[in-house]
Amino acid sequence: MSKLGEKVRVLAHASSANLGPGFDIFGIALDAFYDIVEIERINGEKIIIENYGKYGDIIPKDPRKNVAGIVAKSMLNHYYGKKIGLRISIFKGVKPSSGLGSSGATAAATALALKNLFKINASIEELIYFAAQGEKASAGTPHMDNVASSLLGNFTLIYSTNPPKFINLKVPENIEIAIVSPEIKIKEKAKTKYARKILPKKVELEKVVHNVGHACLIIAGFLLSNINLIGEGMSDRIIEPARSKIVPYYEKVRNIALKNGAAGVAISGAGPSIIALVDSSKIETMKIAECMKEIFEENGIKAEAYVSKIGKEARLLKEDL
């Protein structure tokens, strides 16, 4: 058990889930964005949430609705069976509802911070499990692709959720991600829940075969360090056709990115951000991001363009960045 006043700070990167056919299975960490969670042991039994950073005003302070509060309650109840007073300070650098694993980054950082603050003998699988409990707040289901990616870095494949089981693979040296984040407002408050609600309940066998085959291409591409093979695998005939309805001009954006040299393109998680896989030794990644951005802006939608390398695992911070 930690002492009163002890603090731990953890940084966890953003992530992009699915990569096309790997729905709820594949994820990659993105080093362009990150959250920092600091947890301090305090008197009493309350959990106090303090938010700051670029997007701090967007997320709730109520620990029953805040991802960090949910993860903390779940872990402490499991390991100690009682309430413990905490002050959780969240630097929010990953934009909520962007499709870039915002809640997953907070959840991952919280789980790792608690493990270190309370010297909990938890495996990485257990941390993935507890971090995923925080995803219920935004998605309604404890999916693990984002939290696993933020915890482990690189590319992660979740092949079991009960219990959590994963494979973490290194990425090709020259791989970069072009990102475009359009300002698209969805009427439904819980964007991720809605993005899951609109998915098809029945799927033709032909589409399943296509997705399985292309998911295998992605795995082969990472194992062979072949960026073009990974990109070729980023073709989804099940999830993206449904979600593209809430990401206008997706096909135009996808086509322009491929035309300009991207290896592969996909909606990032539940969207609306779109990612393009780029071999940076051959193509200027920002060029791809900008051409995707232009499609949205030509059609009256504001958008931001970013370039990201692949993020590393969540880590303890000894000093300020």
Distance between the termini: 28 Å
Main sheet summary:
7 strands, mixed
Find the structural class using helix and strand composition.
alpha+beta
Q: Enter the CATH topology name of the largest domain.
A: Ribosomal Protein S5, domain 2
Overall CATH architecture of the largest domain: 2-Layer Sandwich
CATH class of the largest domain: Alpha Beta
Average pLDDT reading: 93
Q: Any idea what the radius of gyration is? A: 19 Å
Low-confidence stretches: none
Annotation field: number of helices: 11
| SSE order | EEEHEHHHHEEEHHHHHEEHEE
Helix content: 25-40%
How many beta strands in the DSSP annotation? 11
**Strand content of the residues, in percent?**
15-25%
| Overall number of structural domains | 2
- Shape designation: globular
List keywords for this structure.
single chain, 321 residues, Ribosomal Protein S5, domain 2, four-stranded antiparallel beta sheet, 11 strands
Give the helix/strand layout:
Blueprint lengths: L6 E11 L8 E16 L5 E6 L14 H13 L6 E6 L10 H16 L6 H10 L2 H4 L5 H8 L2 E7 L2 E6 L5 E8 L8 H7 L7 H19 L3 H7 L6 H4 L6 H10 L4 E4 L6 E6 L5 H14 L4 E6 L6 E2 L5
Parallel strand pairs: 3-4
Antiparallel strand pairs: 1-2, 1-11, 2-4, 2-5, 5-6, 7-9, 7-10, 8-9
